[in-house]
Specification:
The structure is a homotrimer of 348-residue chains. The first copy, chain A, is built from four helices and 40 strands. The N and C termini of chain A lie far apart (85 Å).
Amino acid sequence: MSTASCSLSELAHRLDGILEGASDPPVTSVAGLREAGPSDLSFLNNPKYAKLLRETRAGAVLVSKTWEGEHGCALIRVDNPDAAFAKATEIFRPAPVRRVPGIAASAVIGRDVILGEDAHIGENAVIADGVHIGNRCEIHAGVFIGENAKLGEDIVLHAGAVLREHVILGDRVIIHNNAVIGSDGFGYSVDAAGVRTKVPQVGTVRIGDDVEIGACVCVDRARFGETRIGNGVKIDNLVQIAHNVVIQDHAVIVSQTGISGSSVVCQHAILAGQVGVAGHLTIGEHAVVGAQGGVTKDVPPKTYVWGTPAQPFEQYSKSLAHVSRLPKLQQKLAALEARIAQLEASDS
Amino acid sequence: MSTASCSLSELAHRLDGILEGASDPPVTSVAGLREAGPSDLSFLNNPKYAKLLRETRAGAVLVSKTWEGEHGCALIRVDNPDAAFAKATEIFRPAPVRRVPGIAASAVIGRDVILGEDAHIGENAVIADGVHIGNRCEIHAGVFIGENAKLGEDIVLHAGAVLREHVILGDRVIIHNNAVIGSDGFGYSVDAAGVRTKVPQVGTVRIGDDVEIGACVCVDRARFGETRIGNGVKIDNLVQIAHNVVIQDHAVIVSQTGISGSSVVCQHAILAGQVGVAGHLTIGEHAVVGAQGGVTKDVPPKTYVWGTPAQPFEQYSKSLAHVSRLPKLQQKLAALEARIAQLEASDS
Amino acid sequence: MSTASCSLSELAHRLDGILEGASDPPVTSVAGLREAGPSDLSFLNNPKYAKLLRETRAGAVLVSKTWEGEHGCALIRVDNPDAAFAKATEIFRPAPVRRVPGIAASAVIGRDVILGEDAHIGENAVIADGVHIGNRCEIHAGVFIGENAKLGEDIVLHAGAVLREHVILGDRVIIHNNAVIGSDGFGYSVDAAGVRTKVPQVGTVRIGDDVEIGACVCVDRARFGETRIGNGVKIDNLVQIAHNVVIQDHAVIVSQTGISGSSVVCQHAILAGQVGVAGHLTIGEHAVVGAQGGVTKDVPPKTYVWGTPAQPFEQYSKSLAHVSRLPKLQQKLAALEARIAQLEASDS
């Protein structure tokens, strides 16, 4: 939803720009060149996308005053398209939601809960016994915080997030909707008949400062000790982090990645989307695993790996190239065989 | 749970069929030939599955009056096995749940909420300030709808679903349990030390008419403007849709697929299960990406691609076939080498 | 959070061990050798990890009385490091949470609900009409149980879990937070214009005894009949189980795996993490699919398959090895070609 609508000409005026276009339709939002529709303002920030101006469906596109090129849309010429687009984004952004300090009437607060100053507890949130919540935390509607969990300051837990018992969060942590922190790890003993018995998962989860965790992420509590997420770590939606994993400071985990039990992701490492990491491995500092990669052994620091099983990127790229040339190689082999047969014939 | 149980002979009678079987056990459910157990009725609708009739554990199988073949189970012969099976499905289906219009006593409704006629708001649902809900919407237990969200008519939000602030839904949208629409996109600026700072995600999500979204799906709000899902789009469980993605009308996204930021999935495209799409790409109209495919560049319209990186299906299939023949190619090469050595020996 | 802190010397005393170390820092938790920090106790249980003792950051490591080797950390020598570590784990584990029988004041209980003895219904849980809940079940905060669901005894449903209408659970089932059991299957009819119409999903889900289901798992209800999960099945987080799938007794499904409609996973089969299984297939008894494998045809019993499309492990490993040797093969081919050219020259 946009909270504003204004005509193209008014918009050009507000952005100190010059409109080049035949009509003056209302604009209600902003969008990238590929995604924009007739009621969107878009912008050209990189010359390599200039060809998109022939086909964009945007209502108008912000370009620099000197830009020249083919286009099939209205233009608004400005001094700095980036800055003007940022300004337009502010015009069309919905008003941010402000949550006032206090406890909603329908929230349920257990015994021995310590609540910091100016904290907000939303409707139908459930805070179990012995929980500590720091100053200025926002606990949104329907959140569950289990027994004795400890939260630092300035935390935001979005609606539906679950923190299980004994979990510890640092300061300025953001956890998105329906994420689960502290569910049991996946651990069983197996008897001779292949029947599994649950191994109690008696540890917990400790999360540092300035961590953001996406929607529907699952972080399992440790079998013993702690599953640990360091400072500044950013985790995208639908990621799985198994028991006793350690994610060190400033690592980045992109959507739908899964990290198996007891593996360590070192500082500043990046796991791209849908990566899988087997158990008991170490991904070195500043290492990068490409999307859908499957890591089956330790990754050295500052190494870029890809593929399943994951290999150094250049090696894997060469393998892919060789595979794509296999049909030609097959032909070449047949040609050589014919030449050998020829030689054999003349030889005999 | 089946709400009915009846003997095989009574079932045959109700389906206008002829029972061929020695015993008359009770039937409580219906199932496919592979999955059926002794208390299930199954059916043969395709001759290619006829061999399953020798091994199925079904209590009885519906076949046509003229069918002949080996079977290890009771049969019920009918004129039209498909129609009879549909009728049996109705006999054994649980009674559908009807939700009456009205607001549950435990629901929490904010200020300035507009509620259409005959809408149902379930127990413990939380509707924030300024939300509009159209006629005949069903908002089930524990759903959270954030500030100023706008819902069309005849929508069903299943228990635990979360709609964040400002999200817009068309008519006849179904959102399954614990799905999250409008969580923040995954966007950061990075400083020289590799420390990330959150880029505000100030846009929203707009969803069209007749869209169905599965359980635990995550659709991120736009960094600016709107993440967009068109009319008639069907999204399976556990799918990730990043900020500023556009899914055009009638596209189909199968379970556990992930689509990175700002990519566009054009009309009628199909992404099979566990597909990954990198950012800023376009999947053309009527294109298909095979299961687990990893899309790293634009996919032209009406193209079927597979593999990681995704390639045209035929090309990828040929590559796979060549790889599987590599052991033979290796042998052939060794044989040629021997023949060359032979020639060289006789030549010298 | 650890509920205890004790000095290294006191810990050595409590574990009947002998401390070898210069300082006596406080210990607050236990951890593996790779993950441990200065306030953790760790242990050496397998000689192959002995080299980790040179680099571990653990406050101290439990080793056997006779162990000799390089180490850069304090040691506590004990008779049986495994047993001593288990004891230490108990010292540092947080106190388990006990839930008392009874119905929380904020829980909402529908009509015709049957509640067993000593059951616990947590805050803000919603139990719809006609639900049966067996003895000693724990239904945690914010859980939703739909109409006419039937639960056996000694079940634990963690906060935020959703059981949809008519779902049936056996005894001793554990379902983790925000898992969804019984959402609609993904089924549509398609018209000539490519517009999809929902096929009603009128079946349900039946789960056996001693099943554990992870956080954010989705199990779809059947199109007709039942989606079935047998006894002793263990399912990790974020797994997708489509409509009419059958998981037989004691199968194991690791995180982020997806199983398409109507496939059967036979007894004791294991699907490792991020596996995909196409529809209408059978994974045989005791079969294993390696991580990220993509199963496109039936897997025979007791077979270990890997890759996409999944192949017998040895065959796939050989293919991978052959691919990695392609650069050498290319060189060999060039060398043979040169020798042939030489022969041809001398022949003419």
